[in-house]
Amino acid sequence: MRPKRNNYAYIDGANLHNGIRGLNWSFDYARFRIWLREKYSVEQAFLFLGMIPRYKEIYKRLQKEGYILVFKEVVYDQSGKPKGNCDADIVVSAMEDAYEKKFDRAILVSSDGDYAPLVKFLLKRNNIETIISPGEAKRCSILLKRTGVKIAYVADKRTVLEKQKEKAPNEDGTS
Questions:
Q1: CA–CA gap between residue 70 and residue 137 (Å, rounded)
Q2: What's the rounded Cα separation, in Å, for the pair 39 and 19?
Q3: Which CATH number fits domain 7-161: 3.40.50.1010, 1.10.3720.10, 1.10.10.10, 3.40.50.410?
Q4: What is the pLDDT of residue 3?
Q5: What is residue 174's predicted lDDT score, i.e. its pLDDT?
Q6: Backbone CA torsion sign across 124, 115, 137, 134
Q7: 67-72 vs 75-76, strand pairing mode
Q8: What is the reported pLDDT for 168?
Q9: What is the pLDDT of residues 150-170, one digit of tens each?
Q10: Whole-number Å distance between alpha carbons of 99 and 96
Q11: Angle at the Cα of 36 from the Cα atoms of 162 and 106, rounded to 5 degrees
Q12: Burial class (CB in 10 A: 0-12, 13-18, 19+), 145
């Protein structure tokens, strides 16, 4: 049995959302949170995302599922598309927590090569467990792959992370 650790997950919400959107199955955030706890001993799962008021019910559900939401102010481009880039916020938060020794190991959920310097920093301190790359291996930045850190791919975890279809009453012969 693995020793109990106090690991933190830093999740780039936009990167996760965009990565799983390309999968041909429905991702289950609640199952993902449980998997993070059971597989990687994640005690705190920080989900960084842009604050868009019309999604407040989704935010409430994510909090109930065990995520700590960290919001970034959203700006809109000329076409009205929201932008809430959280990269710098994740880097600063993870580095502060590492310096303050708040966690044993970090788990980074993103495929973005902009995090390569953070990964290298955490590797030097022996403070990173793995990267979880949304989507498939071909979508993960070569900059992250070159760090040599372990990488798990969401696309390979379908049996664990797919939203389960609800059975109709009596479908399985029970009432």
A1: 27
A2: 21
A3: 3.40.50.1010
A4: 64
A5: 55
A6: positive
A7: unpaired
A8: 57
A9: 999 999 998 999 988 765 566
A10: 5
A11: 140
A12: middle
- pLDDT score, position 95: 97
Residue position matching structure tokens 């959280």 = 86
Backbone dihedral angles phi then psi of residue 138, each to the nearest 5 degrees: -65, -15
Strands 82-83 and 75-76: antiparallel
Sign of the Cα torsion 109, 161, 126, 10 reads positive
Q: Where are the domains of the chain?
A: 7-161
Where the chain has pLDDT below 50, the residues are none
What does the angle CA 87 – CA 82 – CA 119 come to, to the nearest 5 degrees? Answer: 10
Rounded Cα distance between 70 and 62, Å, is 12
pTM of the model: 0.90
CA distance 109 to 86: 12
Calpha distance 117→119 (Å, rounded): 5
Q: Which residues contact 153 (CB under 8 A, 6 or more apart)?
A: 132, 133, 135, 136, 137, 140
Q: Which amino acid would we find at residue 81? A: K
